[in-house]
Amino acid sequence: MTHFEYISVMVSIIMGLGIVRLLGSFDKVFSEHRYWPHAVWVLTLFWLHVQNWWAYWEIRTVSFNVALYSTWVGYASLMYLTTVALTNRRSDDTPWKEHFFAQRRWFFGVMILTIILEIFLTRLFFGASLLHPYRAIQLTLLALVIWAAVSDREKYHKIISVLFFIFMAIGISIFRFLPDLFRSAS
User: In the chain, N or C terminus with fewer CB closer than 10 Å?
Assistant: First the structure.
């Protein structure tokens, strides 16, 4: 077993728990008291978990130390906490819209921390400079979650959920389909 394989087990467990929690909520999120912006965020988080797990293979050659490992585990833990915020209703009778707005600040607060940590992780693991073009996507996502954290207007949350998903898809596409972009721009 390599060093990467050994230490990735903890992150895989945390990410796996997030995926299981999201999948376990699908039947309720998409049937009972449905609120579509919340459902978009649940799908977004599911896709982020899957993409992050896939991205971990890209760092298999990184020489880990305690700080890098702790940062990696911290990022996975923040991802899990966003999942808990979106799926942990106090009662099955609580409508998802009510739950979403009750959890809004916690969810988006953790998302803000997650995106900030992602910015540093792409620097640490991939060598992407802080002025790298991919930062425009990350900063757009950060601006959207800050907007969502401070706004309690439903109209804005509908717009933000869709825009975040679109920009996330663009970012993932850039990251996946142009893998040498980071190496050439660092």
Answer: N
